[in-house]
Amino acid sequence: MAKEYSLQQLKNMDKDMILHPQSTPKEVSTNGPSMIFSKGEGIRFTDMEGNTYIDGVSMLWNVNLGHGNKELAQASYDQMTEMAYGSQFYGNSNEPAIRLAEKIVDKAPGDLNSVFYTSGGSESNDSAFKFARFYWQLKGYENKKIIISLKWGYHGVTISTQRATGIKEFRAFSGSSDPYIYNAAPHLTAAEQGDRSHPDYENSIRGLIEKHGSNNVAAVIIEPIQGAGGVHIAPDGYLEAVKTLCEDNKVLFISDEVICGFGRTGKHFGVNHWDIVPDMITFAKGVTSGYFPLGGVILSDEIKKTIDTYDQDIPHGFTYSGHPTACAVGLKNLEIIDRDDLTAHAAEMGVRLQQGFDNLEKKHSTFTHSRTVGLLGAFELMRDRQNEVPFKNHENESIAGDFVNEGSKRGLLIRSFDYEEGMNILAVAPPITITKEELDEVLTILDDTLSFIEEKWLAL
Ligand code: PLP
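^ Aspartate aminotransferase family protein, sequence as received from the core. Prediction below:
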């Protein structure tokens, strides 16, 4: 019989024995974990103290089908009892991996017709960087190694993907600079289209390609809608301009769809909102709705065919590449999304969310810059929105952080982005299964929280 532990014992054990990812060590090792999750059902989860919350950002933007989905659990059970694990190394395969690849390429745009599997988003982007360099090497371009990403892009935490991540703290953490990874200024349509008078021209993607020479640049990586940098949507014409720039300079275009993929934005992929086909798409999170770790890279025919000419082992691949149970869960997840028409549902709920945001903007003077693409949404808080005067932090706390605390007291967990003083972005990205009534509940809690927060912070 497993030993019974009290909640306090578990907290103490956690404090002493676990180093938490993306958490403040001093805080967690002193106070223990803030919540120990214990149960989830639909859009809600409960912690071990018995508090129930609406999961307003689908945990880490991944639990797209919501919690407690028994069909996904059954798919995992069925595969585990059939054959839990079998590797894809040495040219081997398994049926769920093959069937999932069929489903994924069926959804992918253009000639993106093959899949390389990984266990998550960072590994997917890392793999895409390697494939880009390897592709150019096979084409005879030995020096095409540079990867260009954007400020506020988030691409993971391995050494290379962390350097590609355009958030200062992440780039600095690895303590190493990488001569092959550059971070360009954010979304500059004019500069990417060749406007040299733009103040950020030199640090635009175009400027960086010019500076380093196209013979040295392998790929550009962009999230069509940036997630962890604060939900920034590529402006009209931007992705098309970058794609043209890439084509003109023999540079590959990687679309990081780790958050945007598989229905969240109301289309199969974020890039489908624009008229472009990337050379590679990277995915993770929503492919299994977070029920099993899985990720991958979708490759264009040109890249796959070129790599297929290589007649030695490629020294790249993860133990869990093509994990059969992960793939069986992914397959069932995508089947449910299709069967229940959840991509169209996310688009419809996204329109409702934006209407709700518009109403909140009318009612609350601090609410501004709201944006949604399907169920990937955000808004900002400003002291004086007409004049773009931000809220300054108060006693080391941002208004956005306070909003999250106050929202959670009212039963809604969302996420804040306050990387810089004065940046107060709040993201809303609930499971794509959310009903109209549940979404209205989210909006009501946002409304109540805004009333409280506005009164408190405008008086400070
Ligand atoms: N790319 C994007 C757009 C992400 O949002 C994330 C994670 O949040 C990653 C990559 C990294 O994925 P993982 O945490 O699975 O390594």
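The chain has a mean pLDDT of 97.
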